[in-house]
Every structure is written in C-alpha cells, then in structure tokens.
Amino acid sequence: MSTDNREDYLINILRLTDGVRVVKTTEIANYMGVAPASVTEMLKILSKEGLVNYERYRGVSLTAEGITVAKNLRRKHHIMERFLTDVLDVDHQSAHDNACAFEHSMSEDAAIKICHMIGHKVDGDCDTCPEPCDEKMGVKKPAICLVDAEPGDWGTISHVSNKDVAVVRKLISMGFVPGRAIKLDSKVSVDGARIILIGDSVIALDKELCSSIFMNQN
Questions:
Q1: Which of 128, 139, 152, 180 is a good FRET partner for 17, with 20 to 30 A between their CA atoms?
Q2: How would DSSP label each residue in the chain?
C-alpha cells in the first residue's frame, strides 16, 4: 500500500468522525467508494502503525497520532484549495481534485509559504495563522503593515491579506509575493500614495493597497 493511500484513509476517517467518534467499516467503504474488504485490510495496517484504534465489528477511531497526521493533511488540502480558488481563480471542484493530489507531497515549508501568500487563516487546523508560521520560518519580529512603515523601512513580504480576493490577485500579479525584498521609499502624503521599491521596480501604491501588504522588517 502506498503512503498516499494510507493518508487518504486517515483524512477521510477524520472527515467522517472529526476525530471524536467511531466509524463503521461500511461507512468508510461507502464514503470512499471501495470494497469493505479493502477497508478492513487498510485498517489493520493503520492499527499496527498506531494511527487508528480498530476493533472488528465495532469500527475504527483515530489515535492521537492519527489525528495529528490527518489534521496536517487536511490543513495542507485546505491551503492548496484556497490558493487555487482565491489566487488562481480555479473552480471549486477542480481545486478540490487538485488539492487531493497536492496534499500528499506538499512540504511544510511550501504549505507555510502558500498560507502566507493567501494571507489569512485557512481553517481550524491552523488556529492562529500566520504568527506561528513566522516562528517556524525563523522570523523574530512580527510582520508590519506597509501603511505603518516609515520611509527607509525595508524587509521581505510576509503576506498579502484582503477580504476582497480580487485585491490579493492584483497585488500578486504585480509581484507582491511572500519572500520578495521590499522597501518603502517615500510617502507622497499621509493619506496618499506610497512609493515602493520591490526588486528592480519602483511602484506607486495607494494607501488602500498598501494596507493589504505586510512585511517582515530587517
């Protein structure tokens, strides 16, 4: 059995139980569209690995370790799904199908960076995003909004955040993506445009757009 296949079972058991109840083998088989015998075989393997509690005729539940693995997979799935829908404007069904493939191979570092690009909390498996992600990436100072920066402040883009996904897409298309070097060159006025240096480009942004960009200061 492949690792992906094992992980599919874990995340689907989590979806059926939310980690708090026992689910029947037949429920899993119907949900995944596989034969009950295949489910039983996999549950025995997962039980030996300490990822599920399985008792024949009674059902299965996730162990603490199984819940951790499954929630991490679900988090990566939701991160990729939201990236595809919110940033790339992919339809939901296609985004879901692609996320099912990406969730297995996505590294933690890639998940953190994509989460930063989305710029807001993705789901309940990442309760205080993005601050813990900053800690994992070695960022010592909290990200500041570009609106609050002073001329001469510089650093790297932490994330882009706005309730209007069209604004996020616009900024990303302009090159405002996590990890890029950025510097506030000057303010045209207190409530007006800011002159931004990003890479080799000089860009004037209004205050509203600047309020959607966050950077880690150097």
A1: 128
A2: --HHHHHHHHHHHHHHHTTSS-B-HHHHHHHHT--HHHHHHHHHHHHHTTSEEEETTTEEEE-HHHHHHHHHHHHHHHHHHHIIIIIS---HHHHHHHHHHHHHH--HHHHHHHHHHHTS--STTSTTTTHHHHHHTT--SPPEEGGG--TT-EEEEEEE--SSHHHHHHHHHTT--TT-EEEEEEESSTTS-EEEEETTEEEEE-HHHHTTEEEEE-
Say if residues 160 and 214 touch (Cβ distance below 8 Å).
yes
CATH 2.30.30.90 assigned to domain 144-217? The reply is: yes
3-62 belongs to which CATH class? mainly alpha
pTM recorded for the entire structure: 0.66
